[in-house]
Amino acid sequence: MTAKPERTVRHIFYAAHSGLELQPGVKQGSAHGHEESEGRIQFRFFFLKPPGSTDKPTQIRFVSEPPEAYDLAWAIEMLLDGTVSPQEYEAGRFKVKSSGAKQSVSYRLPPHVYESANGKIQTEVGIEAYWTSPGERKFSIFVSRGNRLY
To answer: Does residue 49 have a pLDDT over 80?
Structure first.
C-alpha cells in the first residue's frame, strides 16, 4: 500500500507587480538525512515584470527558524492590536518613523547572512504598520537584500 503524499498548505498574496507566498519551511540536508519542517516558515517574495520592462522577474526566498517565526507572529499581533508597549520601543524591537503625514512602526527579524560567489549576502524580513491619515492603518511585509528594500 502506498502512502498518499501530504498536501502542502500555501498562502499566496498578490500586489500590482509583486507577491508573497507563505508555506511551511523545510530544512534540508540535516545530519540524519531527513527533512525537518517543524515551526519553520518559508517566505517566497516574487517580483513580476512590469509592462514594457526588459528586466527578468526576480524572487527572494527566506526560511525562518522556529523562534523567528514565533517572533514575527508576535510582532504582527502587537501591530494588529495596536498594543506595542513603550518598553518594546525602548528595547529596540520596534522602530518608529515619521515623514510628512505618514507615521510607521516596523519590526525586522535578525538578518540571514550567507556566502556566495559574489561575497556575503544579507537578507532581512520585516513587517510595517503605517498610517496615511487619522484612523487609516495599512500593513506590509517586506524583504531587503543587501541595500535594496523590496
So the answer is: no
What's the rounded Cα separation, in Å, for the pair 108 and 128?
9
pLDDT for residue 37 is more than 70: no
d(CA 35, CA 33): 7
Asked whether the CA dihedral 40, 6, 57, 11 is positive or negative, the reply is negative
Q: How many CB atoms lie within 10 A of CB 103?
A: 14
The per-residue pLDDT for 133 is 72
pLDDT at 90: 59
* Residue the block writes with cell 498610517: 131
| Highest averaged pLDDT of the listed ranges 4-8, 16-20, 102-106 | 16-20
- DSSP assignment string, 1-57: -PPPPPPPP-EEEE-SSEEEEEEE--B-S-TTS--B-TT-EEEEEEEPPPTT--SPP
For the segment 112-138, the average pLDDT, to the nearest whole number, is: 84
